[in-house]
Amino acid sequence: MRLDVVSLAPEAFAPLLGLGVIGRAFSAGRAELHLHNPRDFATDRYRKVDDEPYGGGAGMVLKPEPVYAAVESIPALPKRRVLLMSPQGKPLEQADFRRWASSYDQLVFLCGHYEGFDERIRALAHEEVSIGDFVLTGGELPAMTIINGVVRLLPGTVGTEACLEEESHSALLLEHPHYTRPADFRGMTVPDVLRSGDHGAIARWRSQQQKERTQQRRPDLYERWQAQQQE
User: Fold this and answer.
1) Residue 55 main-chain phi, psi, to 5 deg
2) pTM
3) Could you give the 3-state DSSP secondary structure of residue 8?
4) Is the dihedral of CA 48, 49, 53, 59 positive or negative?
5) Cβ–Cβ < 8 Å for 38, 67
6) Residue 83 to residues 6, 48, 106: CA-CA distances in angstroms?
7) CB distance 129 to 84 below 8 Å
8) Where are the beta strands (DSSP E) in 12-75?
9) Domains and CATH numbers, the chain
10) What confidence tens digit (pLDDT) does each residue in 11-65 have?
């Protein structure tokens, strides 16, 4: 998969290339990361990428010309999706990672900066994505979050793909508890069922734990899961 990032802080993405299984996926060629700085496409002597907003107001706004030029310089693969990082976007979900990883061979990330971006930049994007109801100084961290979530789902990135099917949010429910040795640690013991060797009982226990944990910690997800089961 080809990943293109349009950002005024491309250096922020360097750690991804050495980040565990994600870094190894890049080294193995399962994913390619290409960085594009809109400042390189500014046409004035000062390489200006922002300006004051029409109508007044605090802060500076990212200009459309350098961003459009940066995006238009990127080679387009047949299955391409352009994602705009924005607190006004659709809240990010695990299902989005799976959809992007399986349906596209190129993702382009538009990272805003300053007070915001010129409204016309939105026309470049197929989707606007938010990682939460808060505001950051730029779209770099949200873009890195998505890159991490997508690349780990690419075939061959994670050694045991069954792990991806059982983890939290894979089917709306949160993941069940995990234990390892020792069986008794400071008075906290591993449930007997996990040491029983009865795989059917273990599967039932884990399923029940998923439901209970989701209902307690994320009742919104539990309601969605219940509605899905009724359908």
Assistant:
1) 85, -5
2) 0.89
3) coil
4) negative
5) yes
6) 10, 24, 11
7) yes
8) 32-36, 50-51, 61-62
9) 2-151 (3.40.1280.10), 167-230 (1.10.1270.20)
10) 999 999 999 999 999 999 999 999 999 999 999 999 999 999 999 988 899 999 9
